Write the structure tokens for this entry.
Amino acid sequence: MSADLFEVALFKLKDAGVRMTPQRHAILAYLLDTMSHPTVDEIYKSLEGKFPNMSVATIYNNLRVFKETGLVRELTYGDASSRFDANIEEHYHAVCVKCNKVEDFYHFPLHELESEAASSTGFKVHSHRLEVYGTCQECQIEP
Ligand code: ZN
Ligand code: MN
């Protein structure tokens, strides 16, 4: 994990008046350290050894705080569990249809797409979400 990213995150939380707790610290560090876009259950399983008294609800509450502070993005997938992403750089996702892995990729921001959508629908467009679907490298190897 980049120490800088963590410092910036701590500063944002402090600025928003969010009190730091050991659990909150651990969840944030875990999210900044992983590239895997974990679900709440995955976060829980990774941290329960260190915090046996921490509940899934605590993780939800902390994720909500991180979302409200703009530190974490929630990726929803219909009925499947949400995944959480602490990479707040503008980027896109490739989703594996076999193992559900979500991988980052970078592309120049598609501002043109937003303005085209705005002019053809009359919407005031504030964001967009783009995903590509396929089979990840590991899943291509397996028979
Ligand atoms: Zn896969
Ligand atoms: Mn991502």
About this structure: The CA atoms of residues 90 and 109 lie 7 Å apart.
